[in-house]
Design goal:
UDP-N-acetylmuramoyl-L-alanine:D-glutamate ligase
Length: about 300
């Protein structure tokens, strides 16, 4: 069984379905409201577990009711939680509006901002046994750095999903085995024009890049020219969590080779947008294999 460690955020998603996005200052009647477990770290952990990996999560939850609910939900997915701390105060939340298959998100990190480098170091034994480590940007930057450096020291590949994007030191980026941004995020990382050709941005990146392009699929480069993996056609219901599903699948299938891992990640991401909710839409390994069975190799 593939072992994956995820270092990242755990949120409760407060989701409103609306006919469209409200204009500034406008009050709009919504269609439905749901509370759904989320957070990029938890999402990637759940997605990896459903794809058959042995998953351990490093993160933090508050002492509130959301914290209790989120902890119970992660445990039910079979995720190891010995490195998830409970802290006084609120758990992280994300307020999400979904309209027309797209989403707008406002995140309040709360407990997630207490995830520390010391907490990552305390999980070193778990990281040392991992086949891949996933880390994102909804936790403090110094904790992202600590994860990258520990992965380098242990010889374990770290996949950095730089979202929400912010500029990072080049020396940090060089520690990543793969960067997995979209074009906008990659431009922010490099301090570049977001309208610059994405292939040129990929060539300038200080680490190998797997670039997500929505319905177009993904482009990847690990030396040489960028390669394209087309997307899979599905009916889009909710794009929330698609990137997290993609990243989890990339980590789970990385041992199959980069091209095959990207292909499977695109299939998993496509399945995830065909259902409502970040974790609610995440597919199983069997569902990914069924989709791929109907597609050319």
């Amino acid at each position: 069984m593939v072992r994956v460690v995820v270092v990242g955020s755990i949120n409760m998603d407060l989701v409103t379905l609306a006919p469209r996005f409200a204009e500034p200052g406008e009050t709009l009647l919504g269609e439905r409201f749901l509370t759904i477990p989320g957070g990029k770290g938890a999402n990637q952990a759940v997605a990896a577990a459903r794809l058959g990996a042995d998953v351990s999560l490093v993160g933090a939850l508050g002492s509130d009711l959301f914290g209790d609910q989120l902890h119970a939900g992660l445990a039910a997915e079979g995720i190891a939680l010995q490195h998830v701390r409970r802290v006084d105060g609120a758990s992280g939340t994300a307020s999400i509006t979904v309209a027309g298959g797209e989403n707008q998100i406002v995140i309040v990190p709360a407990a997630n901002w207490t995830v520390s480098p010391a907490q990552v170091e305390a999980a070193a034994d778990s990281l040392a046994r991992a086949d891949a480590v996933l880390v994102q940007m909804e936790i403090p930057p110094e904790t992202v750095e600590a994860t990258l450096r520990l992965g380098q020291r242990l010889g374990v590949p770290v996949i950095l999903n730089p979202a929400p994007a912010r500029p990072l030191p080049v020396e940090w980026l060089r520690l990543a085995r793969f960067l997995t941004p979209n074009q906008h995020e990659l431009a922010i990382l490099l301090g570049a024009d977001p309208d610059e050709d994405f292939r040129a941005l990929m060539a300038r990146a200080p680490a190998p890049v797997v670039l997500t392009r929505g319905a177009e699929g993904a482009w990847y480069r690990d030396g040489g020219e960028p390669q394209h993996q087309p997307g899979f056609r599905v009916e889009v219901v909710d794009t929330t969590g698609a990137g997290d599903t993609f990243n989890a699948a990339l980590a789970v299938f990385l041992k199959d080779g980069l091209g095959e891992a990207v292909r499977k990640a695109c299939a998993a991401g496509a399945l995830s947008v065909s259902r409502l909710g970040a974790q609610g839409g995440m597919p199983t390994r069997a569902e990914v294999e069924a989709l791929l069975a109907g597609q050319p190799a």
